[in-house]
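Re: zinc ion structure - here you go.
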Amino acid sequence: MPLVTTKKMFSDAYEGGYAIGAFNVNNMEIIQGIVEAAREERAPLILQVSAGARKYANSTYLKKLVEAALIESPELPIALHLDHGDTFELCKSVIEDGFTSVMIDGSHLPFEENILLTKQVVDFAHDRGVTVEAELGRLAGIEDAVSVDAEDATFTDPDQAAEFVERTGADSLAIAIGTSHGAYKFKGEPRLDIERLKKINQLLPGFPLVLHGASSVIPEFVEMNNQYGGEIPGAKGVPEELIREATRHGVCKVNIDSDLRLAMTGVIRREFAKNPSNFDPRVYLGPARTAIKEMVRHKIVNVLGNANKI
Ligand code: G3H
Ligand code: 13P
Ligand code: ZN
């Protein structure tokens, strides 16, 4: 089937109390590993392309690799999504290129400006059958949001979220409840503001919410990196149980990038250490691809709950 939008994926996920994994893609092995897991588990899938991915791999290459995945897995619903689009022009250009979903991230803007920018993208995208994710609130850095006052200043305000969705017509909303990008999400005990999430969900019943910065920073891969020459001490992600809980309160899209990076790099480090005489990239990229596949399978089956939803 052709690329799909996120519309049906999200309405089914909301009803079923599960989430769709949105995985960041940067090269062929990453795409293949993710898609093979989703195909085998019959799990609807979002593949997303960031600014960094476009700079590294070039949007055309990534789009064509995703088209190859569609040919190889014709029964799998895949949405091709722009991650953290920052301008109307960028969203317009990827929509014209065939992306089926875009994020316009105006979270750094004042409320009214975020609404204006988001609405402009929504109007353009909806005329072309493309779904739009917006963002309200700022993802906390590890040093931020240490107090309730700081949380109130950065986390998504539930009343504003309801007003924002009403006035923009966005199809989904990324919210800030304590997650952050990267491998260092918490200094002490991991904590998400689940009460805030519940409030947002109550004010926006049936509406799909998005959790960015949702990697678990899987200890097995952190240790593998550190064991074979890496230096990522103290890396900490969102515990799986918290992600599962979020999916029961309206979170329909869970963004995962760091876990892919950690799995791929950990396995490549291990293969280099084990086989120093090898210089054939396939010998280390193959196991890295398999690790990505098994990690994504684990997410689908044990964390997102979207196996067998096709
Ligand atoms: O939102 C952040 C994603 O992990 C993508 O990051 O622009 O370095 O690819 P990137
Ligand atoms: P992680 O860094 O937790 O994987 O988050 C990725 C993300 O939110 C991409 O938009
Ligand atoms: Zn993000």
